[in-house]
Known about the structure:
Layout lengths: L1 H15 L7 H19 L4 H18 L4 H30 L4 E5 L6 E5 L4 E5 L6 E5 L1
Antiparallel strand pairs: 1-2, 3-4
Helix pairs in contact: 2-3
Amino acid sequence: MTKWKDRLEKSLRKFFQGRYGMDALNKCIFFGLLVTTILGQIYPRVWILSLLNFLLTLAFFYRALSKDLNKRYLENQKFLESIKPVGKRTGQVKTRIKNRKTTSYFKCPQCKTEFKAPKGLGKIKVTCKNCGHKFIQKT
C-alpha cells in the first residue's frame, strides 16, 4: 500500500519540478475564478459566467503549470506595475484611517494639493507649497 503512494508522490514531484506555480497574477485569476464560480451558482442560467469560469480555469492552470518561467515572470511584473496605483491609494486610505484621531487632512482650495497637520492646533495659516496660495484651515 505504501509502495504505490511513494511512487505517486515521486512522480508528482517530478511532474511539478520546474513549473512556475503561484504568483500575484495567478492569485488574482484564482480569486476571479472563485467569484465566477459563486456567481454561477447564484445565477445558473447566465452562460457568460460559465464561459468566463472556464477561461479563467484554463489561464490559471496554464500559468501555474508552465515551464516558461521568464515569460510568466514578465507577465506578473507587468500585472504588478498596472495595479501599483491601486495599492498606493489603498495604503493612503489605510494610513488616514489609522491616524484619523491624531491627524487632520485637508486640500488647498486652489490646486487641490493634499496637506496634513496635527489635530488640536485650532486655526492655522497654511501656504501651499505648490501654488503659493495662503488660506486658513481649522485642525
